[in-house]
Structure formats: structure tokens, C-alpha cells
Design brief:
The chain has 6 helices and 12 strands. The protein starts with about 35 loop residues before the first helix and ends in a 6-residue tail after the last helix. About 30% of the residues are buried. The N terminus is likely disordered.
């Protein structure tokens, strides 16, 4: 906030240099003080002038006036680049900033969808048959997920990041890559689609984040690295083998299927499709697989990168 300017009076009083001479009216003679009283007044004034307290007060006043005069002449000190760099460094060393993985997860979170499929039991009553994850790739409500999440479902329900719910219809299938394309029936007003990017410049060791609903819990975030490319995987539920997959070591479990695999910039590079299961326990052992986004996007009819 700017301070108001301070002004000193510039008008001169009568008798100042340059004023026209004026007639002087003689003042009435002042009463002469008795000699004794005048002597006592002079002695008191002399003692006051010689008092240490009075001297220090006068010196302090002079110092204040001098400082004010210097400040008015020089003004406030302008910030230099060195001052700005020091302030930024001080902030970085004293504030706890979110990690890259946290920022990536926060960026992709609005596009992550919980996918639930329902069938009917022997009595004809609706029951949940699977929970997985989806990712919004077009803000008109087009969502990618795994085919095995919704296959055989009579009803599909979506839960968006804002908590709103919608039914969905399967509008496309890419069986060779275990992919399904969903169209939401009801779309949130502020639906945000994920940003997709090519896998062409990625290398093993690049950091990635997987976001989904493992065992229905979530959205959950796991962080790891890309372990390799061009992997093949055969799901334990079928005989089909999926090839040209991204291998990663970010934790994934049943329920992560169909969820996004994203870079540290929060951009989707794959759709999680399976985990290696050397046993029948279906728990993560450090090897997960994702369909590259180039293949996944083509399932929705989107142009290649």
C-alpha cells in the first residue's frame, strides 16, 4: 500500500524576504519583571539546558530528523534478482512441497472413474460382479476401461471424482488388448478429461503413478518405475495372450484394472490391464502390465500420436 506523500508548509509569513515593507505599529510597552524574578527564571532555563535528559532528547530528535531526511531522498530500496533468489531459496528450504508423484496423482484424479458392473443372481436379483477403474479420455463422457471389468454385465455404474453417479453403455471393444470404451449417460458439468501422451520417448526407469480402486478401495495411488516394454501377458482367467505391454512396478491389485498409468506430469501413457500372478492369491508381486495409450486410444477411434 502506497504511503501518502508528506508535505511541509511552503507559504511564507509576513516579513519574510521578498514581502513588501509594511507599516509597523508600536507595541505597548511590556511590564518589566522584578529583578529577583527575572534572575530566577534565567537560572531555571540554564539548569534545564544543561540537564543530561534534555541533551539526550535533543540528540534523539536530531537523529530522527536526519534519518527521515535521508529516507525521503533515497526512497525504499529496490528489489534485486539476488534478493528474489534468496527469498525463493528460503521458501524451498522451509516449506514442505508435494512430491512429483503427489502432483501427478492430483492432476489425473478428476479423470479417474470407479467402474462397477452388475449381473443377476439365480433369483433374478441384481448383484455386483466386479469393480474396476476407468479414465475419462474425452470430456463428453467417453471412458476407457478393461473389457474384463464390464464383460457380461447387465448394468454398469460409474462414480466420478466429484461423487456423482451415472449409468454407462459399452460403445466399443478391443478384445485383443482387453479394452472397452464406455459412454456415460449423465455427465458432470465440470468433467475433466485426462491428457494423453506418446510412449515413444519413455525408457525403463522412468517414474510412473498408477491410480485406481484396488479391492474397491480408493482412489488409491501407487508410485514406481517402468520396468520394460514389449512384454507379453496371459491372464489367468482366459487363454488370450496380450502383447506389446508396458511392464511397471507401481503396486497394482484387482480393482486397478482399467485405471491410468501416468507420468510425473500427470499424463496418461497406459491403461493398467493385469498383474503377474505366480500363485493363486491374486496379490501384487512387483510386476504389472499396461496397454500403451497408443493402442488404448485407437480403441476409442482417436487418432494416433
Amino acid at each position: 500500500m502506497r504511503k501518502p506523500a508528506l508535505y511541509s508548509p511552503s507559504r511564507r509569513g509576513p516579513g519574510a524576504q521578498g514581502d513588501a515593507p509594511q507599516a509597523v505599529t508600536p507595541a505597548p510597552a511590556a511590564a518589566v519583571a522584578p529583578p529577583g524574578r527575572l534572575r530566577r527564571w534565567r537560572q531555571g532555563a540554564t539548569r534545564a539546558a544543561g540537564s543530561p535528559r534534555t541533551l539526550w532528547a535533543g540528540m534523539a530528535l536530531l537523529a530522527a530528523l536526519l534519518a527521515a531526511s535521508v529516507w525521503q531522498q533515497t526512497g525504499p530500496k529496490a528489489l534485486t534478482q539476488k534478493d528474489i533468489d534468496a527469498a525463493v531459496l528460503r521458501t524451498l528450504t522451509t516449506q514442505n512441497l508435494p512430491s512429483q508423484a503427489a502432483r501427478a496423482a492430483e492432476k489425473i484424479r478428476p479423470a479417474v472413474v470407479r467402474v462397477m458392473s452388475y449381473g443377476k443372481d439365480k433369483k433374478g436379483e441384481e448383484q455386483e460382479q466386479g469393480v474396476g477403474t476407468g479414465v475419462v479420455i474425452v470430456d463428453k463422457g467417453i471412458i476407457l476401461t478393461n473389457l474384463h471389468v464390464v464383460q457380461g454385465a447387465q448394468t454398469i455404474k460409474l462414480v466420478f471424482s466429484d461423487g456423482s453417479e451415472s449409468g454407462a453403455t459399452v460403445t466399443g471393444v478391443q478384445a485383443q488388448n482387453d479394452l472397452a470404451v464406455l459412454q456415460a449417460h449423465t455427465i458432470p458439468d465440470d468433467l475433466i478429461a485426462a491428457t494423453m501422451r506418446s510412449t515413444g520417448d519413455l525408457v525403463p526407469g522412468d517414474h510412473v503413478v498408477a491410480v485406481g480402486f484396488p479391492f474397491g478401495i480408493g482412489p488409491s495411488v501407487s508410485h514406481g518405475v517402468i520396468s520394460g516394454f514389449g512384454r507379453a501377458f496371459k491372464s489367468p482367467e482366459g487363454e488370450q495372450e496380450i502383447s506389446n505391454l508396458i511392464q511397471f512396478d507401481a503396486a497394482a491389485n484387482p480393482g486397478n484394472s482399467g485405471g491410468p498409468l501416468v507420468t510425473m506430469d500427470g499424463e496418461v501413457v497406459g491403461v493398467v490391464t493385469g498383474i503377474l500372478n505366480p500363485t493363486s492369491h491374486r496379490t501384487f508381486v512387483g510386476i504389472g502390465f499396461a496397454v500403451p495409450i497408443e493402442s488404448a486410444a485407437s480403441a476409442a477411434g482417436l487418432p494416433p500420436f
